[in-house]
Amino acid sequence: DCTRQPFADVPPADVVIGVKAVLDAVQAKLPKTRVILHAALPSGKDANDPIRRRNEVVNRELSKLCDDHTSLWVDINQRFLTADGRLSRHVMPDYLHPSDAGYDIWASAIMPLLREICLTPTGRNTPYPKTLPDRIPNGDWTDRPDEATADTRITGQVRKREEGPFGDWWWLNRLHNRRVQVIAAKGKTVDVVLMGDSITHFWEWHHPKSWKKFTAKYSAINCGYGGDRTQDVIWRAENGELDGYTAR
Asked: Which of 96, 8, 9 is nearest to 45 (CA)?
């Protein structure tokens, strides 16, 4: 049965079980890697969005999966929101996927943590200091009408997602291209490996300038695939995307 539940109707327990399974799969493949587990990012225009309300329950439970050493819980959601809980299209044009500005917020929030992990010899043994600011400052953009930033919305339907040997089968092309990247990294150490779905995928695909700024400082393999669900991420983790190299 290919019928999918609406996102807002997926039980929080199902999401937590799925994320725990992904976390276990990653740690089984890369036991010496420090895992950053992000809170599910905010979605919807305001705090009344049903998916956002559901994810608040999910995030409370996900935070309990991390020990601050081998796995780190990082909740940067307030950085994307205004003081009254609104999400601007300047930050997330479709109220789900970040814009250039949104990805820059994400990168700047985790840069101190990556510096600790990648550059400090004792990084893995040092508990992560929870020193992230509560929220972004209210700038002029917070009161701009949606129409002012509508041109930044994602238009994935008209973009070719991934070129490769499988023609229009973009998912297989991406899988192939990640395999090429992983083979090239064999025996080496990579600073950052990202596992996820479209929010992870689009940083590299839709926002190459922001991605280039991030990867100018850290070597990275982006294993985000638009539309992937729990079972897809687990399959990729168990079938080659985390094999043959070390990740910090």
From this structure: 96
Q: Cα-flanking dihedrals φ and ψ of residue 183, to 5°?
A: -60, -40
CA 219/CA 175 separation, integer angstroms: 19
Spatial separation of the C-alpha atoms in residues 88 and 91, rounded to whole Å: 5
Cβ atoms of 226 and 174 within 8 Å: the answer is no
CB count in 10 Å sphere of residue 32: 10
Q: Burial, 13: exposed, middle or buried (Cβ in 10 Å; 0-12, 13-18, 19+)?
A: exposed
Q: What's the CA gap between 32 and 45, in Å, rounded?
A: 39
Dihedral-angle region of residue 129 (phi above 0 means left; psi in -120 to 50 means alpha; beta otherwise): beta
Q: What are phi and psi of 165, to 5 degrees?
A: -75, 0
Dump pLDDT digits (tens) for 102-146. 999 999 888 888 888 877 665 555 555 444 444 444 333 333 333
Q: Are strands 246-247 and 189-190 parallel, antiparallel or unpaired?
A: parallel
| Cα 84 from Cα 74, distance rounded (Å) | 21
Report the C-alpha gap between 209 and 66 in whole angstroms: 32
Q: Is 74 helix (H, G, I), strand (E, B) or coil?
A: strand
List pLDDT tens digits, range 82-112.
Answer: 989 999 999 999 999 999 999 999 998 888 8
**CA 221/CA 212 separation, integer angstroms:** 12
This prediction has a pTM of: 0.79
d(CA 120, CA 115): 7
